[in-house]
Write a structure and sequence with these properties.
11 helices; four-stranded mixed beta sheet; alpha/beta; homohexamer; ATP binding (chains A, B, C, D, E, F); nucleotide-binding (chains A, B, C, D, E, F)
Chain lengths: 321, 321, 321, 321, 321, 321
Amino acid sequence: MTEPNIDLVTFGETMARLENPVVGPMRHARALDLGVGGAESNTAIGLCRLGGTAAWFGRVGDDEFGRLITNVLAGEGVRLGHTVVDRSAPTALLFKERRAGTLTRVQYYRTGSAGSRLCPADVPHDLIRSARVLHVTGITAAISATARQALDDAVETAREAGVPVSLDLNYRRALWTPAEAGECLQKLVKRADLLFATEQEARLIVPDADDDLAALAGSLAALGPRDVLLKRGAAGVVALCEGALHVQGAHRVPVIDPVGAGDAFAAGYLAEFVRGRPVADRLDTATAAGAYAVTVRGDWEGLPSRADLDLLKSAEDTVTR
Amino acid sequence: MTEPNIDLVTFGETMARLENPVVGPMRHARALDLGVGGAESNTAIGLCRLGGTAAWFGRVGDDEFGRLITNVLAGEGVRLGHTVVDRSAPTALLFKERRAGTLTRVQYYRTGSAGSRLCPADVPHDLIRSARVLHVTGITAAISATARQALDDAVETAREAGVPVSLDLNYRRALWTPAEAGECLQKLVKRADLLFATEQEARLIVPDADDDLAALAGSLAALGPRDVLLKRGAAGVVALCEGALHVQGAHRVPVIDPVGAGDAFAAGYLAEFVRGRPVADRLDTATAAGAYAVTVRGDWEGLPSRADLDLLKSAEDTVTR
Amino acid sequence: MTEPNIDLVTFGETMARLENPVVGPMRHARALDLGVGGAESNTAIGLCRLGGTAAWFGRVGDDEFGRLITNVLAGEGVRLGHTVVDRSAPTALLFKERRAGTLTRVQYYRTGSAGSRLCPADVPHDLIRSARVLHVTGITAAISATARQALDDAVETAREAGVPVSLDLNYRRALWTPAEAGECLQKLVKRADLLFATEQEARLIVPDADDDLAALAGSLAALGPRDVLLKRGAAGVVALCEGALHVQGAHRVPVIDPVGAGDAFAAGYLAEFVRGRPVADRLDTATAAGAYAVTVRGDWEGLPSRADLDLLKSAEDTVTR
Amino acid sequence: MTEPNIDLVTFGETMARLENPVVGPMRHARALDLGVGGAESNTAIGLCRLGGTAAWFGRVGDDEFGRLITNVLAGEGVRLGHTVVDRSAPTALLFKERRAGTLTRVQYYRTGSAGSRLCPADVPHDLIRSARVLHVTGITAAISATARQALDDAVETAREAGVPVSLDLNYRRALWTPAEAGECLQKLVKRADLLFATEQEARLIVPDADDDLAALAGSLAALGPRDVLLKRGAAGVVALCEGALHVQGAHRVPVIDPVGAGDAFAAGYLAEFVRGRPVADRLDTATAAGAYAVTVRGDWEGLPSRADLDLLKSAEDTVTR
Amino acid sequence: MTEPNIDLVTFGETMARLENPVVGPMRHARALDLGVGGAESNTAIGLCRLGGTAAWFGRVGDDEFGRLITNVLAGEGVRLGHTVVDRSAPTALLFKERRAGTLTRVQYYRTGSAGSRLCPADVPHDLIRSARVLHVTGITAAISATARQALDDAVETAREAGVPVSLDLNYRRALWTPAEAGECLQKLVKRADLLFATEQEARLIVPDADDDLAALAGSLAALGPRDVLLKRGAAGVVALCEGALHVQGAHRVPVIDPVGAGDAFAAGYLAEFVRGRPVADRLDTATAAGAYAVTVRGDWEGLPSRADLDLLKSAEDTVTR
Amino acid sequence: MTEPNIDLVTFGETMARLENPVVGPMRHARALDLGVGGAESNTAIGLCRLGGTAAWFGRVGDDEFGRLITNVLAGEGVRLGHTVVDRSAPTALLFKERRAGTLTRVQYYRTGSAGSRLCPADVPHDLIRSARVLHVTGITAAISATARQALDDAVETAREAGVPVSLDLNYRRALWTPAEAGECLQKLVKRADLLFATEQEARLIVPDADDDLAALAGSLAALGPRDVLLKRGAAGVVALCEGALHVQGAHRVPVIDPVGAGDAFAAGYLAEFVRGRPVADRLDTATAAGAYAVTVRGDWEGLPSRADLDLLKSAEDTVTR
């Protein structure tokens, strides 16, 4: 194993994201807001904002949406040296209809996209070996057969090099069935060192686990991961890390857009993990990152800097309007 | 009576609606959002979105605002075969000042408008006779003498043909006094089969009714209507339908714009009524329609489709963020 | 006659103005830009921007549009001490449809408006007597009988006090017929000292004048005015001032919105007139003000300050891109 | 043949259209304007605006973009009784990058779209037989094999019923090669009564024709069409109609968005054709419609009403700014 | 002492204010909203809206931002006769980053600004002597030495003329340390008749005061002020006025933007004070003004008119949605 | 000299740029568009878009504007490894008032800015030595004494390493007088290999040169530069390169925003220069880059990619609308 020189390596499909600016039927919008999003690249951005270094790789189309993705990621400081511009396929699109309150619907134009053409040949083995952590999500296993092979290859490379593997289950019902996902993801869980999941996702892996969340976390940890993080949204997190149970609440903030909260949580946790900070610090930063994510529109736009963490803390310390 | 071939027929005055996009004094707005609104056409749109068929008639001016109204209604699937373009009068305007929170003020440019020139000659008797329900509101009685005559004519036509008459009291203080309204509307209530009212409106009709809402509904039902729906906003609804009392809460949603909630409620109720669904279903759809109406800006823009009803239900079934 | 202590007094009806921000059918606009406009108040603003002092009076409604008008005019430095808030009538509205290129359509909601209720009792005689010039337009004669009386009263007051009367014919076809206007305006021309007109307007007054513009100006001057300004848009101006003929071209600028160019021209001319500047200077400032007016959207928004006049001059002196 | 009761029937693929509101690289846009567009539906809208009746059919997806298309077309008065909502495929998307001046780039998400699944079973034979004209474009021949079959079926139905066939070649290089297009479209030309083409498109059909435009039109007419319209953009039109040559210039207007000009031209021509007006009138309306189309952003948004034609005419009759 | 003819005189530095329209990192904004703000001018506007008369003086730069400030203040009816345009220094800027929820950050471009060059020569002694109250804030003491001298001069002038002095402590940490502020502001408190402060600000003046708010108010009153108002945001106000203790809650409203609430409170209180109304009325208007301020974006934009006070009252009297 | 591994190195002050979105007085804008701009970084972006590699260095403040600058430049692919975040000074601001047509005014908040604190210690000598060209502008010499020293140091480093020095005079009247600039810049010209200048700027250096542009270019070349490019805006360019005179026209495009055209020209020229392309190719790319720059708002936003160059060429090759 070489000396680590990058904190986090991640990969997957990042899409152009279009959504209605004002809540209601999407067809009423005169214009759709344009941005980018992808679970893995969201986490990479989050880590960079918190002072870490991150690399993302994947495929984008040779079109304005592909250029938007690389512009945004490079602008946020994510390293893109191994990202491929695929001239044979378009960049995938994600339309998000903000229908009422925080109720949303998603429509993909993703079939045959550049991002889904990710394959083992795209995997930069040396880069992965040089990382402090490899972060992957279950989405990559679902988008195509070649992407799943690339995922396997990357995880295997990390394990062989002693690089911890972080896995966020990120189940997406538009991409596969619970049964398909459960079978595939269970194998991944067994090879992961850190695991992020919602309760619903967790039960895809260990359907027979107890109702109790601590027991559920225990069942997952029994499969391999040393840190298991059960994310509960506004209810906080139940974590079983290095054998100890941690229960932590979420910050009380107005929820504007819950999308991306999980990616933010992972970014916060990993940002402290790669710095060798204790679990309590990891959870503090993870929950603060989640709070910032949900109070700002967009998947990653609201992710905090270190100065933002201080701002939140000082605001909560003061009893003022 | 011929075989019904349209679910709902309604009519009245629909106006161009202009409002400040950001809450505050209207004069601070650099631009005013432009839309359309009218209690009856809102309900017609709501019924179409829920899969029904609806026709609306009335007068609009030969101007961009009149064309906006017919464009929007036709676009939403409302049948406009009997709508009149009046070349002698302008389309009415409604300015809505969103002043602070949900506090609003309304200013009309409505005197002598095309819509208020509605008259008995405009009433399509055959269309009314072919409907499953005729829906009217108290506003039409208030905008002009000829409109009131048209209202009488339409109601009488429906009654003679055995078409149920639905009445939403919709008292508007800018148009007449409580005393004028009470006298006029009471006569309408006596000829209605379904009655929608807020508590305040109800007391214009039966000022001596008991404080208790069930008793109030009873007093109204005693005048004739077989279904009496007392709308209570965030507190839900008290309904006396076909002799049975129903008390139902509202969905807990963030209220963005309460205007149009009553029209949505009527649309939801009538959408199930014309399909012959039981009262419980009517109230479920009515309250869901009301919830959608208040979480989206605009009078009718947020009205739900059948798929939207499912989305709301599935979101409330899940305990997640 | 007392010592003049205000440069210009003017009056009339100022309206709220709503228009589509992007060229096309107005009904396609999701929002309409909100502003104010009135020929006389445009000229008052123009004079203030050029360093003069101006007062405007008239009636506005007790509504947000009335407050918008007084906010804008006071903000621009126009004195409003004699402006009346009329609690019985609404502020008039002007909708401007920018249909294609610079083709526009206008729709008024003006019948019975506060502004049209201007009457002789509103005329501040002392203020008029203290002015260096009284500026009026033909519009005021057309909006109502009482407004026309107020116009007569004001003009008579000025004449008796030796205050020069400036008249811009400003014929509006939506308000009266050419015949009505011609008869009425001819009487006003006979009492005016300075006269602004387009060729078409001029021929309403002297229908039998020669085709030649110099002759046309002469025919008008023969009725009384010592300065006659025939405005020709992009073709410049033909002026017969104090007996001498002046022909001047317009600045070559991209025309964005021609509305208000005439008011700007009058403002520029009068700004120099009240300072006692020679005709050449008056025409220079008038044409520069016209150029600024047409290159900026809105009736008065683009009107120039003295520094802006210098900017235009220095740009035209340089041969650069 | 039954008595015609609709002026124009047309069909094809209509797409959701997204474009950057401010000229520049599309990825710089914070939001993309949302609308709809399709050559055939543009022409249908244009005919409705000019007072005619038009029906359009085709397939849209069961998504917000499909609903946007049907909302817009129904709102504009186009009859949609035979339009199919295809639950198995998404609505196609068209991204238009307004790159610099009027330079644009187009990117489609159209493969496997609902619209391209049009097939002969979708063709409403009775509707076509009842029309005064059937209007088709070459695009439909290019989007799929089933769509081409539907096109053949529709054309044959019209011919058998004596309904004139109008064909706009509308060659799209993203969909097929010049050779493919030339072969296929030539067969269509032979069955068409009216033919619309640019010079470049015309030469796909008759590659050996003379340089001279009159000769080119003659070569096309020799294949069958009784009216051949060679569109030349700002240079006007060369037409060989019923054996006579017509050369007409275009209106001088600022070109904001040239897309849709050809569809507008066809709409204007056909609007007069179905009313039995002479060629000179058809060309006048066609060129005026083209002028309106290019001065307003969007493919169809600027299309003129009869009143708009008058406005353009009166503006050009007056020599004023 | 001359007869008062203006209700309130105030002065200080008013800045151009730029902020991101959508919550998140400011650098993500494609445009920043432009407005003006200054604690003292906010209060002057508030008093004018409530029907009083107010004058503000200070320095602005000879630039668009200075002109924006004078346009806004004059438009709102604030008298600016003694405001100075300083040609040697720019108008100060305030950037407000709306980071998440109501968490904000402020960045000034204020060093060497026109406003900070305020000096004793700018103080209009006669104007101050003619006022019903002089209102000052601690900010002016902090921006420059000359401004502090002007503050001293103005306060002394008022005291000598028997004009009550109102002081809002308004501590700004970006401008000075707590120690500097405490020493300087304590001297001002001793010369004030009315004192507005938050609890934190109050403890800068009387650091040894009891924890109890009533006692804290008493300690301040002991220094001189006859009315002491301790503002507690959403928790209301504790007031020790003319020897009596008043505790009043705040209105329950959705907080959109808390900035300016204190200035609004002062405006409401002083609006009734200058009319000689009792303390209960002063507190009612003050809390209502605060409620309006926080429900509307901007520092002063939401300030209420008398009609707005009625609207709030009537809405709270009704139990409806 | 090491093997070149970067095409272009440049440095200077890049600012946040705020401007009114709609032409007119800036104070009328409700919001100001936010972007970044700096002559040198504009050129670096331009070179990257054309496929080259570029590095920029300079100082930015530790604030949102500094982060905006680094986000944008990194997003565009500019290497920022030697850029300094200065925690003691704010990022400079540039306000651009788009006043009328293309008339603009500029206001800086630049005194004491982070960017002006650039000093010799910031200069990365190895980076400069590894470049194919060093590009500097006269602005850097004007912003501060330390920046001028840094400029001298960088130029000397390049010359010693045999790296060609490219100089764009870029005279800014707000920063220094013609006399100051002339003296300083002449020294720089003598050390430059490539020189970009307008005619006006050129005459600051060689005030006694002949009127003829070829002679003017000759006078400049006599001072040292082997390539002299006299930029003439819409009139094209006169170039004296490697001893040969080239006269080339500009593309005919609608000018939306002329700012940045010079930086674009330099980028285009240098993009071909570093690839060793002949002068004709350099001028072609330079003029095309200039055309793209002026047709898009913003200083650098419109700069072309290689594909954009092809698009422009193919559009000009076709005679169509």
